[in-house]
Amino acid sequence: MLLAEAGTTPQPACCPAVLQVIRALLQQPTLQRTCLVWFDQFCIRDTIGDLTHLPKDLRPAVGRVNTHTYNSSVFFSKLRAAPLVPFQDGTLARKRLRRLLARKFGGVSLWVSEFGTGRGALQLARHIVKDLATLLPSAWVYWQAVEDMGANWGLIEMPMQHPDGAAAGDAAAGTAAEAGPGCDAAGGVAAGAEGAAGCSRVPGAPAAAQDGEVSAVRAVSGSASSEGVQRQQQEQQQQLAQAMLHPNYFVVQFLMQALPVGSCLCRVEGFGKQGFAVWHPPGSATAAGAGARWSLVFMNPNSEKIGFRVSASSFGAAHPTAATQGAAAQGQQAESAAVVVVGGAAISRVEKLSLHLLDVRGLVPQTVQGGLSRVQVAGQWQKGELELGVDGGCDVSVPPGHLCRVDGPSCWAAC
Length: 415
Fold this sequence. Notes:
By secondary structure, this protein is α/β, with parallel strands linked by helices. The chain has helices at residues 15-26, 44-53, 78-81, 85-89, 91-104, 121-135, 171-178, 207-242, 247-258, 313-316, 322-329; strands at 36-41, 62-68, 109-115, 139-142, 146-147, 156-157, 244-245, 264-269, 275-280, 293-300, 306-311, 339-341, 352-359, 366-367, 381-387, 393-398, 402-407. The strands form 4 sheets. A 7-stranded mixed β-sheet has the order 12-8-9-10-17-13-15. It has a 4-stranded parallel β-sheet with strand order 1-2-3-4, covered by helices on one side. The chain is globular, with a radius of gyration of 28 Å.
């Protein structure tokens, strides 16, 4: 039961009445197993405020907490937003939210249920990684998958207007209208259309004549609607031919591949808000048949390259605790999530690392004429391997403006 959405949260004066209704609903036999999903607030600080003021008797009914991770800098200039951002979305606020969920709400699942930005792929990549690294959510949802051309917010951009200027959503209605009121777009007379102009019997006319006229109307309307459907399909194909994959699309695609179903997020000591580790337990989408393994994800938004060293011991002390594994199995993240330490002692087994680099700054829009499966990020998505030294360690260098993913060898899962 989703109780609120940003902008529709009940005002304080209305809250007692709303809470009474919620309590009454939860007592209904048919809703005994219903959980509450709160609060879909604009920013983390607002979510903390709502959770803090939620009555204790309703806390056990909360099955998930949703939050948006906007702040005023998304909509206003840096100068105007500067005083508000630390209050709305500071590092301490993010830590407080995780601590609050763990201590007072039983470590329920946390979703980042909305974020979007029209400021480009680099800003989006930086923000998603920050959310994943600091909040450890069990789901992260992008705001708008499809947008109009040039909007700069969507993952996919395509014309949202018909050639005649009507909204794209009016196409089916326009096609049906051509066949006459009461006639469906596929031709013929819709059920219950008697009395509608163009499809009804004519009062006072002979029955045979009426039947003939109706047949004629059906033939004409069927032909017109058939032509209308064909024209609509052609227009849709033209729209698809103009569709573009925004650079945002490739950022989300890269991170989705790094976070398969069943994986678990862990903090990385030394990465801060710029990176995190991913634990792929046995049975997860990428570990199926290959055993458990680790991955590292790092975002370098700076103008200079950043390097770090990884080894088996980077993950040896980072196996999820029983509590964390149980939470991951339920799509949750425990507050005591494992902490990965980058660097340290190594092992004497030579293996290879799989390296993926995405040049976020170099991304450009791509057409989808040949289908999504044929889209190539030429030169922007680099894949390779890194040799581990005899000491079991390896240096990783992340160029400016790049997303990086390092997949550890299967032996690291046993460290």
